[in-house]
């Protein structure tokens, strides 16, 4: 059985880097905007500087006094509501004052006294609001994740459509054309998915014509949906197996345990399954000691759902969970949608 190549690390890493880049750009452009505002504010003091200069014997004495004053008491600007609190405070340090200003050199600010330009070069020290930047990071990471998830919901169908467009009608056998024309929408969707993965009409036809099936091979930690291998981490695979075993045995939908009272019996059952098939020791001990918790069930059901949708798109719906609200205590009960006859287990 061909196993499709899939990796969640690359999209995750790229999303993380993109989010960090967005936060960096927010900080950078915030600081640039703040510095522009400060320079514009300082430029309004040019007339005051002219008046003050008259009380000094020379411009050099004035600049000497300005430099010493700013070294002892730097300019501090508060930004209580600037850019949603990205920058809360800015300190302006005078790095250099050129009198006269050197031609061709960049200055943050230039004043003119007695027809002579005076160039000021500043260093800005900004205090960033870490909580706000972290919120921007979370928002951007979540947005990128949702966008990526939406664009990848049906990756195999898109791939299949592109491949089928490159196939000449003459290359399709008469028998294949007849079979395609007789397919219902669900079969055609499975055909497109399988062809997009395996690039084989024969394999795609076999998969599309199969009945729904869910097969577990816990000995080798493998899962098959209609013969298509689905890569799944071992812990969510064990939880999926546990739900599937209950469905095959005809058990009632399982009600999530109370938050205050984990299910020790079910925890011991699941721990035994994990122990027999080399599960994680820490998880096994947790189940034995504390029992099966609603939080763990919810977490692993969601992981199973995410993996199946990533691999199968909308075709995963038949392999997910039915949920009902228990009228007695408002807790939810869950079981697999798939019929028990469609579930099998390899020895």
What does this structure look like?
By secondary structure, the protein is an alpha+beta fold. The strands form 3 sheets. It has a 4-stranded antiparallel β-sheet. A 4-stranded mixed β-sheet has the order 7-6-5-11, with helices on one face. The chain has a 3-stranded antiparallel β-sheet with strand order 8-10-9. Helix 1 packs across helix 4, helix 5 packs across helix 7 and helix 9 crosses helix 12. The two termini are 18 Å apart. The N terminus is likely disordered.
A few lines on this structure:
The protein contains 12 helices and 11 strands. By secondary structure, it is an alpha+beta fold.
End-to-end CA span: 18 Å
Q: How much helical structure, as a percent, in the residues?
A: 40-55%
Strand content: 15-25%
- Rg measurement, Å: 33 Å
Compute the number of helices. 12
Q: What general form does the structure show?
A: elongated
SSE pattern: HHHEEEEHHHHHEEEHEHHHEEE
The main sheet comes to: 4 strands, antiparallel
**Strand order, sheet with most strands:** 1-2-4-3
Which spans of ≥5 residues are poorly predicted at pLDDT below 50? 1-8, 154-162, 165-170
Oligomer: single chain
Number of strands: 11
Supply the helix-strand structural class.
alpha+beta
